[in-house]
Amino acid sequence: MNKIKKTFDDYVMGTYTRTGPVFVKGKGSYLFDEDKNKYLDFFPGWGVGILGHAHAAVAKDIATQAKQLIHVPNNLYSPNQALCAKELIKASFKKGKVFFCNSGAESVEAAVKLAKAYGSDKKKTEIIAMKKSFHGRTIGALSCTVQDQKQGPFQPLLKGIKSAEFGDFESFKAQVTAKTAAVILEPIQGEGGVNIATKEYLQKMREFCTNNDILLIFDEVQTGMARTGKMFAYQYFGVEPDLFTLSKGLGAGFPIGCIVVSEKFETVLKPGMHASTFGGSPLATAAVLAVLKAIKEEKVLANVKKKEKVMAKRLNALKKECSCIKDVRGVGLMWAVELNDNAKPVYDELMTRKMITNVSHNTVMRVMPALNINDKDFDKGLSMFEAAIRNFDQK
Ligand SMILES: *Cc1c(COP(=O)(O)O)cnc(C)c1O
Fold this sequence. Notes:
Blueprint: H1 3-11, E1 23-27, E2 30-33, E3 38-41, H2 56-68, H3 79-91, E4 96-101, H4 104-120, E5 126-130, H5 139-144, H6 148-151, E6 161-164, H7 169-175, E7 180-185, E8 188-189, E9 195-196, H8 199-211, E10 215-219, H9 233-237, E11 243-246, E12 257-262, H10 282-297, H11 300-321, E13 325-331, E14 334-339, H12 344-352, E15 355-356, E16 358-360, E17 364-367, H13 375-394
Parallel strand pairs: 3-15, 5-6, 5-7, 7-10, 10-11
Antiparallel strand pairs: 1-2, 2-3, 4-12, 8-9, 11-12, 13-14, 14-17, 16-17
Helix pairs in contact: 2-10, 3-10, 11-13, 12-13
């Protein structure tokens, strides 16, 4: 057995199902294993790798900052966190504030705590979450992740979390009481298998929440940072939440998360009510500043829109051709090909052919390449994917 894999077996807790070789290096849309084999990564970091691997400018800025100042506690000042918050507000609400943490689940925890704090004066203690959602594995975030399989043995979870069908406004309304403080949803459910909300649904939610003093929270951990062809998915739908979470693509691989809060709710969390030791460190926010700069300079939004058209055309053509495909759906560079059967054989074949993809809920293949992927790698990846699906279809 491979030495590193054996060391994993011996010393790392078995909370993950790992496959493939041992990767030691990345560059752009490729990963390299111990034997210098090259794998085309069409699912970099589960949506994290928006700029591919080892992006030169981001790596350089991280290295420079690491030599200068890695961490200062949040009771002291340093420049990057402030500059980073300013950029995020400029790109979103224009007026509002940001709280920084270190991961997606933590950003959801911050959103849940803000909702609870907002509701506490008004005796509003309930939060509505969506079925098939994914918000993370910590207890608060898991309480909002309405999937039996994930909540399983961890019951009882947080009190006061109710659930509604995603995309069904009446189902949401049926859960609302005088105690509803907030509703949390992903505008496009990621782990749930790329389930896309309609604009009408989100508009209705917005109107109802405004009229009933309910916080509308979007979890944009996966959809944020240009994934949809807009900087944030709410801009794609044209429906503004009261606050939203970011994490996966925010540091393009460097761990960081945040909530971006609109002006009206920016003072709900007061001094001492929430904190994070590492949150928004000089090093992490240097990474974010470099990512934001790269998105602009490399015209990443334009690339996503251009590639979205090709993806839509080719995957829809593939659906027409292959009866094994149940559905094709997506926005920007966030796509799903849902099969009628278990998709694991397709995943395995692609891994053998040295391409990395993803399967969620057994039948849904997620296609989410880096947002700055070049034409050549994009075409190559799509061709390999099409070939694997055709093969599977003939079996
Ligand atoms: C991945 C994800 C999370 C959890 O992020 P972690 O960094 O793993 O805690 C939360 N919400 C959404 C929408 C996600 O896709």
